[in-house]
Write a structure and sequence with these properties.
5 strands, single chain, about 130 residues, five-stranded mixed β-sheet, alpha/beta, Nucleotidyltransferase, domain 5, about 30% helix, 3 helices
């Protein structure tokens, strides 16, 4: 099973490609404010370098948080869209050992694609509009 992993909770984003639990490729780059512009290109480049294509992805593993509001929103949106459009399972995991937990978990998930929701790590802070 070819698994794409996404971790976009910090300015340095990470993506990985695994064949079950064997790492094929892993990229980390300083995406910061260009995450929405660079994420698809980095995934495409990693797939090409590994001799794979979008169609080879059998599951998506996403770090669901806690972390940056914008980074998680972008990363999970991309992961959820890829999973939904290709009819493949998606799993969201938190914690230090998120990769190991998620890879073990994704192989047990049937072809159900549920949207993975972000965990921001604190309550929402809403400010009143200025008059």
């Amino acid at each position: 099973m070819i698994i794409l992993s996404l971790k976009t909770d910090k300015p340095e984003s990470e993506i990985g490609l695994f064949d079950d639990d064997k790492k094929i490729a892993y990229i980390a780059w300083e995406a910061h404010r260009q995450l929405a512009e660079t994420l698809h290109n980095e995934i495409k480049k990693m797939l090409e370098e590994a001799g794979k294509s979008w169609e080879n992805i059998d599951g998506i593993l996403m770090y669901e948080g806690p972390g940056s509001f914008t980074g998680l929103r972008i990363g999970l949106s991309v992961g959820n869209a890829l999973a939904y459009s290709n009819g493949i399972p998606a799993v969201g995991v938190s914690g230090e050992d998120w990769l190991e937990l998620g890879i073990g978990k994704i192989s047990k998930v049937a072809n159900k694609t549920m949207p993975i929701l972000p965990v921001y790590g604190s309550e929402v802070h809403i400010t009143l509009p200025r008059k």
